[in-house]
Amino acid sequence: MALITLEEAKIYLRLDSSDEDDLISMLLVSAQQLCADVARLADDKRELVMTEDAADDTGTYTMEELSAMRETLRVAILYALGYLYEHREEADHHDLTLTLRSLLFVIREGVL
Question: CA torsion angle for 86, 90, 83, 19 (degrees, to 10)?
Fold first, then answer.
């Protein structure tokens, strides 16, 4: 299961109708991708953290650590989704990226 469902996204955006479901779905995918990119998550960690019910079979992370990373990502994804939805015609992606860096600092991977 994904971290944010379409219904959760619509509740966050305070949307009642299904008129913009396609747009919200596209923006949600973009927000998730952007947050994973800003957090510099490697492919294996991305899959682990971005899937709500995934467990770490390698023993690298405890369930508490995974839960904390997921909650941080949820906040960042919802923020990015709201920003992209509200500013879809004049979004300042540099400003959005800087804010996401701040939100995701605790889980952000270093560059090798």
Answer: 40
CA-to-CA distance for 102 and 29, rounded, in angstroms? 20
The string of pLDDT tens digits covering residues 42-89 is 877 888 888 777 776 777 778 888 888 899 999 999 999 999 999 988
**Angstrom distances, CA of residue 12 to CA of 60, 81, 103, 106:** 32, 9, 18, 23
Backbone angles phi, psi at 63, to 5 degrees: -65, -35
Is the Cβ–Cβ distance between 79 and 3 less than 8 Å?
no
Are the CB atoms for 27 and 84 separated by under 8 Å? yes
Contact 110, 39 (CB under 8 A): no
